[in-house]
Amino acid sequence: MKLFGTDGIRGRANEFPITPEVSLSVGQAVATVLRNSDPRRNRVVVGKDTRISGYMLETALTAGLVSSGMDVYLPGPLPTPAIAHLTKSMGCAAGIMLTASHNPFEDNGLKIFGPDGFKLNDELEAKIEGHILGEEGETHTVPPSEIGKAYRIDDARGRYIEYAKQTADNIPLHGLKIVVDCGNGAAWFIAPLIFRELGAEVIKTGCTPDGLNINDDCGALHPEHAGELVRAHGADLGISFDGDADRVIFTDASGTPVSGDRILALSALALKEQGRLRGNTIAVTVMSNLGLHDAMKQHGIKVLTTAVGDRNVIEALRANNHSFGGENSGHLIFADHATTGDGILSALQVLAMMKRRDATLAELANCMTEFPQKLVNLPVSSKPPLETLPELSRTIADAEAAFGNSGRQLIRYSGTENKIRILVEHREEKVVEEWTGRFIRAVQNELGAA
Predict the structure, then answer these.
(1) How does pLDDT run across 40-88, given as a tens digit for each residue?
(2) Active-site residue 382, yes or no?
(3) Domains, the chain
(4) What are the backbone angles phi and psi of residue 58, rounded to the nearest 5°?
(5) For helices 290-298 and 260-273, angle between their N-to-C axes, nearest 10 degrees
(6) CB under 8 Å to 317, separation ≥6 — which residues?
(7) Which member of 25, 53, 68, 101 is catalytic?
């Protein structure tokens, strides 16, 4: 598709496609497609993170929706999973979140959820895109008497706060000291409040958004910031969210970041112990470490592997009626509770596991041995099919022959940025370094990456 990537529509604010004009068209297209599916549903909830461009896009998107006869509910800055939850609980036709997740403030985007709280499938996204681009016919607008209304929702925060706490059985967190880094993003107000209400002592940071500082040297992209505060305050752990709080990165009591794969592993083991890991199976993406696969095999847990993107993990869980999965980037899907990755809910689940086992995060995370791994992101000006690049193709074939069962490589373009991602993993670190260098040289020779 031309507009939709792996996670909605994304780009630089005030440049196509992240413009007021396109946002207005998105509103009209969403109304047209979803009302055609069920004309009884005429409500949409529109959320945003803390980027300054969110105000511009929210206004234009709302105009497009109400011009097509939809009523719009505006809760203000809230995490993406909160919008997914509100969409379903309020009986809306759709939920739309204005966010570029972990990207800098200059970017923004639109994530769209259906009435069930799940991200739209490819077919619906294609129909919406077709209307936006004028390829599916005209969008539906209404006469003056049928124009929709826009409402501010004053109790949206409270609705989500109570839902999130309930998913962890309101487990008391008394005695825990937690550093909470909200990345100056959508969770800045509610995340510290939730942990404090459950009894934890909270040291908060990244909670002063100004529209320009989202993800700026803080949050899930920089867990070392929370780690420094953990050490300084003698805290039990650090919890770092990205800009829209759909993912979370943890640091242990030593201030050391805990890999997403270790969190996936410890969660899977805890769920199995509780009898809540349906089918004794988890779903993860191709980015997960081979050490995770080894650890799960040792405990009799099967692993489904999907393409990159939390939506692909969710689709695998839904198709097979499994209850848990995620990405090593920090997206965790506890499918019994949530329809998308939810950083706050995931943090509560992990904290509950610590309390039930009376164990530290480091103790729980010591459940697998990771293969040495290196991930490099290189900017590119274009994205030709990888198989059309002869030097890179030869290097990939040579690596596969050399690695056997002891390692792997994964070369792919980012679905949200003009970058190519190079992942190399092997039992021996020197092999990782050698082949990472080879791949970088091949990419630079053929794509001119800096």
Answers:
(1) 679 999 999 999 999 999 999 999 999 999 999 999 999 999 999 999 9
(2) no
(3) 4-154 (3.40.120.10), 155-370 (3.40.120.10), 373-447 (3.30.310.50)
(4) -60, -45
(5) 20
(6) 283, 323, 324, 325, 333, 335
(7) 101
